[in-house]
Amino acid sequence: MSVAIVGAGKFGQAIARGFVRAGLVAADRIIASTPCSEDLAKAAKIGVRTTFDNLEAVKPSNVVFLAVKPDVMRTVLYEIAPIISERHIVVSVAAGVKISYVEDKLPVDTRVIRVMSNTPCMVGEGATVFARGTAAKDSDSVLVQQFFSTLGFCVESEESSLDAVTGVSGSGPAYAFCAIDAMADGGVKMGLPRDLALKLAAQTMLGAAKMTLEPGSHPMILKDNVGSPGGTTMAGVHKLEELGFRNCLISAVESTTVKSVELSQQMLDEDKNYDEDVKTAVLKI
Amino acid sequence: MPIAIVGAGKIGQAIARGFVRAGLVSADRIISSSPSRECLTEMGRLGVRTTYDNMDAVKPSNIVFLAVKPNIMPAVLDEIAPVINERHLVVSLAAGITIDFLEQKLPANARVIRVMCNTPCIVGEGATVFSRGSAAKQTDSIIVQKFFTSLGFCDEGDESILDAVTGVSGSGPAYAFCAIDAIADGGVKMGLPRHLSIKLAAQTLLGAAKMVLETESHPMVLKDDVCSPLGTTISAIHKLEQQGFRNCLIDAVEVAALKSKEISVKNQQKTQLKQEYEEDIKSAAFIQ
């Protein structure tokens, strides 16, 4: 099995690193392509093969990850379309790019899967949800499930859920980074050295999350179990409620989801304009 | 070497479960005491020996973990003090109970260690900081370090930082649970089924925390890395800033740390008042 990772930016590198670390694919069976030499150098450090040429990566591979930014997706799809065959599984990991958008630009019956994953894949603790395109087979689902299960949690779902997934787990790591930084700031304010404060904040978040993942756990019941009567924890929790902490996060998830929907629509609209422009240009000729 | 766990509540069960799970001590070498039948039943399920009598647990043991609520500590200390000798290492897990307080209540030269750990010890991902009392030896530190490292991260520190540690990692899991619940609410609002939403929220926090710990990158650098120009994530960051998200947590840590300090001061005052009362009684008796 040969894997192409088109787009060797942050996420492309994250999944490359994840796959190699998990022993899923040997580093030399992965080819990463990008026009950016800095990114290519970073990818090379992971041990994967690299190239500036997308076609060179795609031709020999059977699984092609498209990890490019939404705004260059169209160009990349048109570029690789001529060499995409029934041998390929095209896995798009780009936010806001609909399956129909991808299928539209590739040969009919191309097997496409759309994935919303996240950067903790690179430490083997990713969260991934994927949806099947019209020609994707059961075995394609199974393969993608296998890939992303080695990088963390993975489940298949409807495409319609992927914007919300973006809001929760796609962008979610950023909310967590801010939270860890803020807790560490609090610790430093109250007298801890920075590195200890940061370590404690991150470890606390990790531990609490792990507890929540145990079967049968509910976060709010777990919260109840932390505090003692008259203790420090309920004082802290009250402060969070006073300041609308939970609201911050609900709003953040909502705004990300809406943005993701907007992005997908934008891309479809641009398609329409693009087609019109092409038509007009052709007529002019 | 038997171990006593006085108090079989959430933290007592957490450390028992953790120590046994980590293979540090077998369940039948642990004796846990509590007045609560429910709690003892839970402990019993782990294979730990149980008793209603604190003395039964403390007398035969070398290491005594005090995992009772801060408001019961004074009574428990008074109760066990008569049987504490140089063989014992007393490890207190209670928030806001100072080393001074512990040492005043126990015999002179009792070896005491004060610990601030947290509930994720149950799943082997705890965060613990401990401080030595005046008679505790180097070897005592090493033992406690070993025990709590088997449950997650553990470091020794000066007692003066333990209130702050309480604010960050002692109470911190509750803030994380609230965060997970809220993110999950957001997901459900936007169309995800509840169980998937909770799963994704918890997994995301776990993964992000692991990235901070493993890459040793600054969390804000990691945040930068996940924010593409014009993307969904930076939009969310702005929303969080607008709503003072980070402020919520800084405030929560501060409030919890101050509360921890308040509890220690109150306990100290109570003990002082009690001492003064006892002296008054003595002098009154003398005058008569």
Explain what you see.
Chain B: Belongs to the pyrroline-5-carboxylate reductase family. Chain B: Keywords: Amino-acid biosynthesis, Proline biosynthesis. Chain B: Its EC number is 1.5.1.2. Chain A is α/β, with parallel strands linked by helices. Chain A has a domain at 3-162: Rossmann fold (3-Layer(aba) Sandwich), CATH 3.40.50. Helix content of chain A is 57%, strand content 13%. Chain A has twelve helices and eight strands. Chain A has helices spanning 10-21, 37-46, 54-58, 70-80, 99-105, 138-149, 162-170, 172-189, 194-213, 219-226, 232-242, 245-284, and strands spanning 3-6, 30-33, 49-51, 63-66, 89-92, 111-116, 126-132, 152-156. Chain A has an eight-stranded mixed β-sheet with strand order 3-2-1-4-5-6-7-8, with helices on both faces. In chain A, β7, α6 (138-149) and β8 form a beta-alpha-beta unit. Chain A is globular. With 288 residues, chain B is of the alpha/beta class. Chain B has twelve helices and eight strands. Chain B is globular, with a radius of gyration of 22 Å. Chain B starts with a strand and ends with a helix. Chains A and B meet through β7, β8, α7, α8 and α9 of A and β7, β8, α7, α8 and α9 of B.
What's the count of strands of chain B? 8
Strand order of the largest sheet of chain A: 3-2-1-4-5-6-7-8
How much beta of chain A, percentage-wise?
5-15%
Biggest sheet of chain B, in brief?
8 strands, mixed
Q: What is the CATH homology-level superfamily of the largest domain in chain B?
A: NAD(P)-binding Rossmann-like Domain
> How are helices and strands ordered from N to C of chain A?
EHEHEHEHEHEEHEHHHHHH
EC number (chain B): 1.5.1.2
Domain Pyrroline-5-carboxylate reductase catalytic N-terminal (chain B): 3-96
Family (chain B): Belongs to the pyrroline-5-carboxylate reductase family.
InterPro entries (chain B): 6-PGluconate_DH-like_C_sf (IPR008927), NAD(P)-bd_dom_sf (IPR036291), P5C_Rdtase_cat_N (IPR028939), P5CR_dimer (IPR029036), Pyrroline-COOH_reductase (IPR000304)
